[in-house]
Specification:
Distance between the termini: 59 Å
Largest sheet: 6 strands, parallel
Strand content: 5-15%
Number of helices: 45
Helix content: 55-70%
Shape: globular
Length: about 1000
């Protein structure tokens, strides 16, 4: 790695001592601004303004990239990284004079604070030696003027700090000449003048010292109209009295008091928390107080001790450690103060009897000293206030299970569980990195069962260390059993259950009951409405506040619906569940869970009915209870039903699983049906699939055949949406048979309609029309009947019966206009537009599809909008409006991709590739079309495969691959279906895009 220099001329020194600079002003300016901001991202805008201060060229982005590339190529080891905001030059402190200067200056400050002026002076001199002249001399970059001025100020401040250190160390003889030169450059700098006066006075030159004062005063009065400041006046008075302004005699150093417990060797993670605490405790204008709060076992004390050890240099007078035992048996304040006074050198009769008098003596001992006071496991604010130092310089670090809300002026750090990486690191340190690495998956299961809680992880790691032959998978299996988990999490005197029990026992009776009730909810992220419903008591708010204060429940903020959210740690929930099983009857537990699940179902029902119904399955009205929540709360929560589903999505998926586990399958189905309205609308297919598979498996085990069939029908819908047509058809047909046996005609109508649409995709129009007709005849509600008629229209298109399809689509549109439902209207317009196009009415078709797109843009129905945009692209292609057609296809593809609707995304990609052929880029289109072809074949979609082959044939012809073109054309003909107006029209429209743009 080369060594860079900016403190003087811009230089790059490569081994062995060869100095170079970049070629060209732009490269030098670019390197300069990156070096002045070393290890920080410099925004592209700032770099552009640096290189082109007036008007940047249009190609500034590529030019900037070129300059960066040239710098990397020219100087081996130069690390310039690109990030989302700009460019960052990574450099070690020893490889850049600016960083070396700052590092040495910081060391000088630390040594000065520690009372070692000789060491401080050495560091400062090393820092100043990095300067070779003015910053970036010989290179003028206007945008860097402020940075250059700031660095010059840093240099001057370091010089003055150095002089202070050398004067404190009794060295003054060699300073006078250097100070006189500096004050010539900075005649208004009062600190320099005071230092020069001191050095001259010590050298026996009192008259010269006083002359410096006279000259400074004259200059300040004439140029600024002000008198010298307090420091200069103090030095002047000392010189007049013949006294040394800076006595060299050092106060006897107090031997540092260090009561900290040892820092544990296997401490892992928490670097971000330590950095934050270090920043808070470094405040110098007051007595900073930082409070680490968190649930039992979060590692509060361990973090406090580790942080205190790292800060020892910042508190040279010592570190006091005071165990307050707040969670078990809070210590008497008089005893605590007595121990502290004895540690501070106050003994025997000098220790007052009165608590307030002891506190006053304690504060007096800490006055003007830099001591870090660590108060561990505080019970409350009353136990702390008397232990706070009274003067700046010292700092206080507190740990408590309580939030200590009554402690004014304190900064709080809520301690969350470890991150996944930190948890694995701690396990590896305890059990051995090789062992954890060999069974990584099992180790991750252990960490998850421990909830990444440090105490639990330490116990699990210790058990593994004690038994080298114990497989990690075996321990993971034991910990995953909730019934025995807390039994497993104990070793020697460490146990999770006991740690949580201390906090529980300190609660009031109403808060204890609330705690046990919350344990019945398997969801870890709880909304206030669910917590209040569980507790069902007029004093619920007070109980919740007490649990939050005790760190057994964490308030995590307000969600987009305006509802307060709470989090409970998994191990805390397990403990609460244990207590519930011991102290309450089964009937009581069932009643509370039933009430909160009823509230969730009713909210989901109302929210689902306010969303557009996109999932092609019925929404049953059976088994929906009366809403237990107040009407005004329901209205506020569901003002935006999509937002409510968004924040509760994970909880509802968990609720379905939990209800299945206890056998409440019908309620699980009703919640899932309503949740699916949101999941399908936003293409959250994975959540839908997982939930319906869980429901299906539980229903099979319970012998609930009807629920099994409904779950399978929804799973077939997901297969259909992802393009797995053959599997979807098989699933639909099997479900239709089962529903016929069960006599569920309404659900069967939906399934037959879905089957009809799927068969169209497979090119089996006759079968599709039969299924659609049967679905229409089975339909008992208008919604399913309309869905079936759309399937009929699609099948008729492929059978060449356009007039019949057109009549159906006009009827659907008339009904949609009467409904005033924008989503239904937009879908109906799309269907009619395509029938009009197939009927040879392109102008009407274009007008209709454009209305469809406009209407659907007002809705959240993104899938329907993607379909209409695709249709718009095809109709525009037929009208010769190539640019508009491609744009519509691109917008449709973007939407379909985001919704994971692969068949539609592929069909849009095919159309865009067809336009490339017309643009003379057939070579680029061929590999894309081949990938489309492979996927359509895998889906079994014969019409889509045939269309793709026609476009691919044209691409091969454009590049002169005659044989490949003939093969593609022959295969396309074999797949053609007589009378399929849909396919023949689409072939014509797609091939129009392959014509040259000028045609």
């Amino acid at each position: 790695m080369p060594r860079f220099g900016v403190l003087g001329p811009l230089t790059i020194e490569s081994p062995p001592g060869r100095r170079t600079t970049p070629r060209g002003d732009h490269q030098r300016a670019l390197l300069a601004v990156l070096l002045l901001n070393a290890n920080s991202s410099v925004p592209v805008g700032a770099l552009v303004e640096t290189l082109w201060p007036e008007t940047p060229p249009k190609s500034y982005s590529s030019n900037l990239h070129t300059y960066v590339s040239r710098l990397r190529a020219r100087f081996e080891g130069l690390e310039i990284e690109r990030d989302p905001h700009g460019y960052r030059l990574a450099v070690e402190p020893g490889d850049l004079d600016l960083l070396s200067f700052r590092e040495a200056a910081a060391a000088g400050k630390a040594a000065a604070r520690a009372g070692d002026p000789a060491a401080a002076a050495g560091h400062y001199r090393r820092a100043l030696a990095e300067w070779r002249g003015p910053v970036l001399s010989g290179l003028h970059v206007p945008r860097l003027d402020a940075d250059v001025a700031r660095l010059e100020s840093e240099r001057l401040a370091a010089f003055e700090d150095c002089v202070d250190a050398e004067l404190s160390d009794g060295r003054h003889g060699e300073l006078t000449g250097e100070l006189q030169a500096m004050i010539t450059e900075h005649p208004l700098r009062e600190r320099l003048a005071a230092q020069l006066m001191t050095a001259l006075h010590r050298a026996g030159r009192q008259a010269d010292s006083l002359a410096v004062h006279r000259e400074l005063r004259t200059t300040l009065v004439e140029e600024l109209g002000v008198e010298p400041g307090a420091e200069v006046r103090r030095v002047h008075a000392a010189v007049l009295r013949g006294e040394d302004p800076v006595p060299t005699a050092k106060t006897a150093q107090v031997f540092p008091i260090c009561q900290l417990p040892p820092d544990i060797a296997d401490f892992a993670g928490r670097e971000g928390e330590i950095a934050k605490l270090s920043g808070l405790l470094g405040e110098s204008t007051r007595v900073p107080v930082a409070v680490i709060t968190g649930e039992p076992g979060a590692g509060k004390s361990t973090l406090a001790v580790s942080t205190a050890h790292r800060l020892r240099r910042s508190f040279p007078d010592g570190q006091l450690f005071v165990p307050l035992a707040g969670a078990s048996s809070p210590r008497d304040l008089a005893d605590v103060l007595g121990d502290l006074l004895r540690a501070l050198g106050v003994t025997g009769p000098a220790i007052p009897d009165d608590v307030e008098a002891r506190a006053a003596v304690y504060r007096g001992r800490l006055a003007d000293r830099r001591v870090l006071v660590v108060l561990d496991d505080a019970a409350g604010p009353d136990q702390i206030r008397a232990l706070l130092p009274g003067t700046p310089g010292s700092a206080v670090l507190i740990t408590s299970r309580q939030r200590l809300s009554g402690l004014a002026g304190a900064d709080r750090l809520p301690l969350a569980p470890l991150s996944g990486a930190e948890a694995m690191s701690l396990l590896a340190r305890l059990a051995g990195p090789d062992r954890v690495g060999a069974e990584r998956a099992a180790a991750e299961r252990i960490a998850k069962a421990c909830g990444n809680l440090p105490l639990a992880l330490r116990i699990a790691g210790s058990r593994l260390a004690m038994r080298p032959g114990l497989p990690l998978g075996k321990l993971a299996g034991k910990l995953e059993d909730e019934v025995s988990r807390l039994d497993e999490l104990q070793v020697s005197d460490l146990q999770v259950r006991g740690s949580i029990a201390l906090s529980y026992q300190a609660l009031s009776p109403p808060a204890r009951r609330a705690f046990r009730l919350i344990g019945r909810c398997r969801t870890l992220d709880l909304p206030a409405w669910a917590v209040s419903t569980l507790i069902d008591d007029e004093d619920a708010d007070e109980a919740i506040d007490e649990l939050v204060e005790a760190s057994l429940l964490e308030a995590t903020g307000v969600d987009p619906t305006g509802e307060q959210r709470f989090r409970v740690h998994d191990l805390v929930r397990v403990f609460a569940t244990e207590l519930g099983r011991e102290l309450e009857t089964h009937a009581e537990r069932v009643a509370s869970v039933a009430k909160v699940s009823d509230a969730a179902l009713c909210l989901a029902d109302t929210a689902a009915r306010r969303l557009p119904r996109t999932v092609p399955m019925p929404l049953s009205d059976q088994d929906v209870p009366a809403q237990p929540l107040p009407a005004e709360l329901v209205e506020r929560l569901l003002r935006d039903p999509g937002a409510w589903f968004s924040v509760e999505r994970a909880n509802l998926v968990t609720a379905v699983s939990s209800l299945c586990a206890v056998g409440w399958l019908r309620k699980a189905l009703r919640i899932l049906e309503r949740l699916s309205a949101y999941l399908y609308l936003h293409s959250h297919y994975t959540d839908m699939r997982t939930a319906y598979e869980t429901l299906r498996d539980a229903a099979r085990e319970a012998g609930e055949g009807h629920i099994v069939v409904i779950a399978e029908a929804n799973l077939a819908v997901l297969l259909h949406a992802s393009g797995e047509y053959e599997r979807a058809v098989e699933g639909y047909r099997e479900c239709s048979k089962e529903l016929a046996v069960l006599g569920d005609l309404a659900t069967r109508a939906w399934v037959e309609t879905n089957l009809a649409h799927c068969l169209v995709g497979l090119g089996r129009a006759g079968e599709s029309l039969h299924a659609a007709t049967q679905a229409r005849e089975l339909s008992t509600v208008e919604d399913s009947g309309t869905h079936a008629r759309r399937a009929e229209s699609a099948a008729l298109h492929r059978l060449g019966k356009i007039s019949e399809a057109l009549e159906i689509d006009r009827r659907i549109l008339a009904e949609a206009r009467e409904s005033a439902d924008d989503r239904q209207l937009g879908i109906a317009l799309q269907g009619l537009s395509w029938s009009l196009m197939l009927d040879g009415r392109p102008e009407e078709a274009l007008e209709t599809i454009e209305e469809s797109v406009r209407v659907l843009r007002r809705t959240t129905a993104k899938s329907a909008l993607a379909k209409s945009l695709r249709t718009q692209g095809a109709i525009l292609a037929g009208a010769g409006r190539r640019v508009g057609a491609v744009k519509a296809y691109e917008n449709a593809r973007r939407l379909a991709g985001a919704l994971e609707e692969r068949p539609r995304e592929l069909s849009c990609t095919r159309a865009i590739a067809a336009s490339w052929i017309g643009d003379g880029r057939a070579d680029r289109a061929i590999p894309v079309l081949r990938r489309c072809l492979d996927e359509f074949r895998a889906m079994g979609g014969k019409p889509a495969t045939g269309l793709t082959l026609h476009v691919l044939r044209r691409a091969y012809e454009a590049v002169g691959e005659t044989k490949a073109a003939e093969a593609a054309g022959e295969e396309a003909k074999r797949l053609e279906v007589p009378h399929d107006a849909n396919a023949s029209t689409l072939v014509r429209l797609l091939l129009s895009l392959t014509e040259p743009a000028s045609a």
